[in-house]
Amino acid sequence: MNKHASDLKPEKIVGGVATDQRHESAHKHVSGTAVYIDDIPEPAGTLHGCLGLSTVAHGRIRAMDLSAVRAAPGVVAVLTAADVPGENDISPTGRHDEPILTDELVQFFGQPVFCVIAETRDQARRATLKAEMTYEELSFTVDIGALDPLNDKLVTPPLTLKRGEAGEAIRQSPHRIKGRMRVGGQDHFYLEGHIAMAIPGEDGDVAVHSSTQHPSEVQHMVSHALGVPSHAVTVEVRRMGGGFGGKETQSNLFAALAAIAARKLGRAVKIRPDRDDDMKATGKRHDFLISYEAGFDDDGAVQGVDFTFAARCGYSSDLSGPVTDRALFHCDNTYFWPAVRAQSAPLYTNTVSNTAFRGFGGPQGMVGAERVIEEVAFALGKDPLEIRKRNFYSTTTRNVTPYHQTVEDNIIERLVSELEADAEYWRRRRTIQAFNANSRVVKRGLALTPVKFGISFTATHYNQAGALVHVYTDGSVHLNHGGTEMGQGLYLKVAQVVAEEFQIDLSNVKVTATSTGKVPNTSATAASSGSDLNGMAAQNAAQQIKARLVDFAAEKFSVPADQVVFLPNRVRVGNQEFTFADFVRQAYMARVQLSAAGFYKTPKIHWDRDKGQGRPFYYFAYGAACSEVSIDTLTGEYVVERVDVLHDAGRSLNRAIDLGQIEGGFVQGMGWLTTEELWWDERGRLRTHAPSTYKIPLASDRPKIFNVKLAEWPENAEPSIHRSKAVGEPPFPLAISVLHALSDAVASVADHRIFPDLDAPATPERVLMAVERLKRKAKSLA
Amino acid sequence: MAPPAKATSAPFHAQTVSLTLNGENKTLQVEPWTTLLDLLRHDLRLTGTKKGCDHGQCGACTVLIDGERMNSCLQLAIMQDGKAITTVEGLAGEGEDLHPMQAAFISHDAFQCGYCTPGQICSAVALVNEGRAKSRDDIREMMSGNICRCGAYPNIVDAIEEVLAEQQSGSRHLEAAE
C-alpha cells in the first residue's frame, strides 16, 4: 500500500500514469470487505427468485401446471411470460428472438420458462421442482458437425470478407492443403455467478443492482420489459466477481425478472441462480468448425486462402453476428494473405444462445490462421516458426487485411525475434529433438505463436464513452465513468489518468460505482476498450475543469494562461504557489464550476459491413508466446513446462495490472484450448454444468516456468490514452502456443511426417487419440 | 412500504449450537439443514466468505475450522458445536491490521476480481500451518482446491511462498507491504 509522505513540494505525484499501483480494492479484497451484490444488506422483506428451466431441447409447451409451485411454502408469486408487462424480449441486437420467459416454444434444454418468487431462496428453489410440465417434443440439433454452413438455418446474417481471387490463387499455387478443425466453446465460470437485486421506488421506478458489464443495456432491457421509460430505471454496479464477456448481455435476464417481480409485488427481489442453473441457462463462448483451403509456394508463402467459420450460436442471435464477424477479422492474425475469402456461418442450434467471451470470436479466427500455417509447415517439412515469419505482414507493402484496412502499426517481426532470442527457441528446438529421440513415453513439444488483435468495437457507435468528474472544495475528486470493474483494474487506471491530469495524488481520487444515473448511454465494458474509452472521457472531463481553473487564475492574478501550471499537489500561478485544495477553494469562492461531464469518441474508425470494407479498428495490439509441453504418450496427460511471453501494451498505464491481465488471459486461454470441454448428451442436456465436470485451470495447471514480459519499447502509434494499448483480450490467444506445442509433441511420435490434426480443446483424451492415430498411420506407412 | 419478512422457517426445527467465531463465543439457533456458509453469510452477515459453486468444488467459501481449511458450503452449521471457526474477517491477530498472508496478497497483487480471494487466503493460511508445503510446486498442488478464474495464480503462489519463507525463517510478522 502506498503511504503518502507529507512532502510539501514533491517532484511527482503518487499514483500517476505509468506507475505500478495496487488494485484500488486490494485492502478490501484481502479482508473480505469488498462488497459484491450478494453482500449488500437486503432491504426488509426482500424476496428471492428461482428460474424454472425447460427439460426438453426443442418442443412446444402443451401444459404447464404450476399449482403445486404456487402452493409451496413461502411462494409469493410465479412469473410466466404473461406476467411481463412490457416487451418479453431481451435480444441485445433488436432481433426479437430472445424471450425473457418463453411462452410456448422451447428451443433449448434449460430455457427459462417461469420464475418462482418466494420469501427465501431455499423456498424458491424447492418450489421450482414442483412444476408439472407437458411438452410436445420436436426434433432438435445440438451439434453443428452435420449442418451445412451455406444452407442450414442461421441466427443472423453471415459475413463474407474478400480481397483478391482466393479460389484462383489457390488453384494456381504449387501446393495446396484443405482441412477442417473443431474449436470448442468455453464457460465463463466467473466466480461470482449472475445476480440482480431490484428495489422498487416511487412512481413505478426501479433501482437494479446488477452484476453486469453493460449497465446501460440492462437499463434498456428492464425498461422495455416493464414498459416504462429509461428514466424510471437506474442500474448500478460497483464491481463484479469476474465477467469475461459472460456479463455483457447475459445479465439482462436476471435483472429483467427481478425488476418485473419487484414492480409487481412492491418488494425488493433478488435473483441469484444456483451455479448449475447459471451454467445451463446462460450463454458461452462459441465453438466453431473451421474449414480451410490454402495454396502456397515452395517456400511456404501462402498465395491464397479460403475459410468458412461455422459457429454454434444456440437458439438466438444474441451477439453471434459481431462474434462471428470478429472471427473473420482475425482469420489473418499476423499474416498477409495475398488473396483471401472468409465467410461466417452463425448457425442455429437447440442450445443456449452463445455470447461474448474474452476475445469475442477473435481467438477462434486466429486458431484458424495458425492452423493453416501449421499445416503448410508440415506439408513442406519446415519449422512452423519459419513459415510464420515468411507470412508476416510487412510494414509498407503486404499490409492490407482481408477487410481492406491497412496495418499501419505492425511490430510483430521485432516482437517475435526478441522472444525467439529470449526463449532460445532454436536451441530448445534442438534439445527437444534430442530428448524425443531418446524418450520412449514422454515426448516434448515446442511452439511460438504470434498475436495481432484489433482494438475497437466493430459496431462503430459503441466506441464512445462518458465520465463525470467533480472536484470538491477540499481538493478531493469524485470520479465516475461508464466502465465497469470486474477485476481488470479499470477503476484504478482511469483514476490514475485523472490524478495525472490534476497532478494530485491518487488517494485524492475516488471512483464510485458505475451507475446509469451518473453517466448515461454507455457501452459495454468489453472489446478491451475500458481504459481506452473511459480513460479518455475522464481525461476530457478533468481538462474541462482545468481549463476553467486556468481562466479563473489568469484573470484573478493577472497572469498569462501559460503561467498557471499544475504541479504535483499544487498549482503555480505566476510566482505564487497554492496547494491544490487551496486553489480550488478560491475558484469555488469565485463561482467557478468544478464539475464536468467528459466525452470521447474514437476517431478514424468506420466499417461498411455490406461491402466488407473499412477501418473497423483504431489500432492493433501485438504479442507472442513460446510454449513447451511434455505429453505422456501412454495416457495423453501433459504438463506445460515453460511459457515465455512478450506482449505489447503500448506505453502501459500500469505495468503491474497489465502483467496480471497477460498472465490471467494466458491461463484462461490455456483452459479453453486444453481442459475445458463442454459436453451435451443425446437429449441436448449440457452435462458439464459444474466445476466437477468442467475442468478450469488450477494453480497446479499453470505453466511450471512462466516468464511474462511487457515489451519496453512500443507505444501506441495512435494518440490513445497516454499512448497505452488495450490489454483485456489480446493476451488470451497467446495460449494458442500451448495447443501448437501439444500438436508438436504429438507429431513427434511419427517423426513429424504426419499432420496431427489436433482439435481443441486438446484434452488428454484427444491428445491420446491423436497419438494413437499417428502411431497407426506411421505403421501403415512403414 | 415492504412488509417485514415473515419467519422463514419453522422455529421448532432449530437446534442450539455453541461455537467460537473469529475468537468470539456464540450460541446460535440453527436449522439442521443450514450450511455453515449460509449461517455465516445470511444469518450472521459475515459476507467476506463467498459462495462460488455451492458444491465444494471451487473453494471460494473456504474457512478455518479448528485451524483446518474446509469448504463451508459442505459443512452443516449444526456440526460445528464446540468448534472454532475463523473466517477472512477474523484472520488478523490481536492488534494486527492484517494477517501476514493478507498483507502478502496485497503486496503481490494476488487477485483480480477478488471473489476467490478470501477463500484463497484462508486456504493459504492453513497450508502454511500444515507445514507440508516445501516448494512452489507443493504450493501449487496443495492450493489446487481454490479456483481463480482470473488466473492470478502466479501472484497467489508468490504471496504464499513469501509467507512460507518468512515462517520457515522463524519470523511470523511481515512488514506491511509498502
UniProtKB/TrEMBL annotation, chain A:
Its Enzyme Commission number? Answer: 1.17.1.4
| Keywords on record | Molybdenum, Oxidoreductase
- The UniProt record lists the Aldehyde oxidase/xanthine dehydrogenase a/b hammerhead domain at 31-139
> Which enzyme type, at the first EC level?
oxidoreductase
Q: Which GO terms describe its molecular function?
A: xanthine dehydrogenase activity
Q: Which PANTHER family match?
A: ALDEHYDE OXIDASE 1-RELATED, XANTHINE DEHYDROGENASE
Q: What is this protein called?
A: Xanthine dehydrogenase molybdopterin binding subunit
- Species the sequence originates in: Mesorhizobium liriopis
What phylogenetic lineage does the species belong to?
A: Bacteria, Pseudomonadati, Pseudomonadota, Alphaproteobacteria, Hyphomicrobiales
From TrEMBL, chain B:
Give the species this sequence originates from: Mesorhizobium liriopis
Specify whether Oxidoreductase is a keyword of the entry: yes
Q: Which residues form the signal peptide?
A: none
Q: Which Pfam families match?
A: Fer2 (PF00111), Fer2_2 (PF01799)
Q: Which domain of life is it from?
A: Bacteria
Where would I find the 2Fe-2S ferredoxin-type domain in this sequence?
15-91
The record ties this protein, via PANTHER family, to:
OXIDOREDUCTASE WITH IRON-SULFUR SUBUNIT (PTHR45331:SF2), OXIDOREDUCTASE, IRON-SULPHUR BINDING SUBUNIT-RELATED-RELATED (PTHR45331)
Keyword match Metal-binding:
yes
What UniProt keywords are attached to this protein's entry?
Iron, Metal-binding, Oxidoreductase
What is the name of this protein? (2Fe-2S)-binding protein
| InterPro entries on file | 2Fe-2S-bd, 2Fe-2S-bd_dom_sf, 2Fe-2S_ferredoxin-like_sf, 2Fe-2S_ferredoxin-type, 2Fe2S_fd_BS, Ald_DH_CS_CYS, Aldehyde_Oxdr_Iron-Sulfur, Beta-grasp_dom_sf
SUPFAM superfamilies per UniProt:
2Fe-2S ferredoxin-like (SSF54292), CO dehydrogenase ISP C-domain like (SSF47741)
